[in-house]
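Recall that a protein's primary structure is simply its ordered list of amino acids. Everything else, from secondary elements to tertiary packing, is in principle encoded there. The following example makes that idea concrete.
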Amino acid sequence: MTERPKPYFRKTLAIIALAGCLFTSCVNTKQAAYFNNLNDTTLAAVKVDFEPVVQKNDILQINVSAANPQEAMMYNLPNTYSPGSNTAAGNITMAPAAGNPVAGYLVNQQGTIDFPVLGTIKADGLTKTALTDTIRRRLIDRKLLVDPVVSIRFLNYRVTVLGEVARPTVVNVSSEKISILEALGMAGDITIFGKKENVLLIREQDGVRTTRRLNLNDASMLGSPYFYLKPNDIVYVEPSKAKVATTSKANTVIPIVLSALSLVVILVDRLIVNN
């Protein structure tokens, strides 16, 4: 005849099973997936102006070239940089690029930069193309260079990803174009406890801060004007109620469970000794 489990053994199993249930939460698989209502289809390109607009506190790398490199050289020399300081004469600052310090022009609070020979140039509110044309036109009008080529890049184009992601991070965007999916991917993706249906986007432009709630479960997001991020955007992923409940429950229940299991171990040990 098979010996029936002893009462204390059954109680031990019951306590362990209860402890497991306390830390188990149900996750809605539809909410865990991106674009769960998307079928095979062809989507039109998002009609958004990707060219970023220069704003105050932006750091710009401006290069000028011409048929005679010697004549253009003076427009590419950084001003004197003071060690231990973030700024230098002529509104030039040092910004990291690929791990190395690179000279760039800081757009000051007046929205201008001080450019060699040309002096003060209004930059705030202009696109890269507009600012490029402004500098090029001034060089030509003052007969400083013949057919100059001006190129501009942002040295501080970055977005921040926070909240319920694997690796909250600041993403430096060298290509000057990034989608919200790319940013989340570089942050290790949203965890199983993140609310894809309620992602918060914080954007500051022209001194005005705006917020938008984005639903990454919905395929319409692929055509949203917020699908592509702008410089200094902040993406925040909220934790789900399951994560909050699990964390709160764990902080409350773990000490109780550990104490109960300790008591059970002592009782089982004594019963075994007595038998």
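The two ends are 20 Å apart (CA to CA). Residues 49 and 61 are 21 Å apart (CA to CA).
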